[in-house]
Amino acid sequence: MQARVKWVEEVLFMGQSGSGHTVMMDGPEEVGGRNLAARPMEMLLMGLGGCSTFDVVSILKKSRQQVESCEVEIRAERADTEPKVFTRIDLHFVVSGQNLKESAVQRAVALSAEKYCSASIMLERAGVAIGHSFSIVGADAAE
């Protein structure tokens, strides 16, 4: 896997993935940014969310669950001093579908956290406390 990041101006950067996709990153106004794009640390959180949500949906589909939507709400805390690393991240999955089994959703979230989500596991190994929770909304849940 590869990526490249190019400085554009001030604190605006353009990232390009090895697969050829481009994303912009910017800093806040107090450091010369114009708030034109996500911050690099926000990108890290979104990557974590994408990785884990991909797993949860995939596991639910393989379990023959009729998942219709899945999103993850992410809240993070950072250290007060430099380097301002993440110290805690909480992921809350909101899943809806037809006749979803609570046990299947719980299993999917746990498998993502403990076995499949490379981003989550890597951050935990680096000392970030990561919490996982879920709720089933909308369509009927079954058990």
Give a structural overview.
The radius of gyration is 17 Å and the shape is elongated. The chain has two domains: 38 residues, N-terminal domain of TfIIb; 103 residues, K homology (KH) domain (GMP Synthetase, Chain A, domain 3, 2-Layer Sandwich). The mean pLDDT is 95. The protein is built from three helices and eight strands. It has 143 residues and is an alpha/beta fold. The strands form three sheets. It has a three-stranded antiparallel beta sheet, with no helix packed on it. The N and C termini lie far apart (40 Å).
Primary descriptors:
143 residues; GMP Synthetase, Chain A, domain 3; three-stranded antiparallel beta sheet; three-stranded mixed beta sheet; 3 helices; 32% helix; KH_dom-like_a/b
Indicate the topology:
Blueprint: E1 3-9, E2 12-17, E3 22-25, H1 40-62, E4 66-78, E5 86-98, E6 100-101, H2 102-116, H3 118-125, E7 129-137, E8 141-142
Parallel strand pairs: 5-7, 6-8
Antiparallel strand pairs: 1-2, 2-3, 4-5
Helix pairs in contact: 1-2
Quick structural summary:
The chain is elongated, with a radius of gyration of 17 Å. With 143 residues, the chain is α/β, with parallel strands linked by helices. It contains three helices and eight strands, in the order E-E-E-H-E-E-E-H-H-E-E.
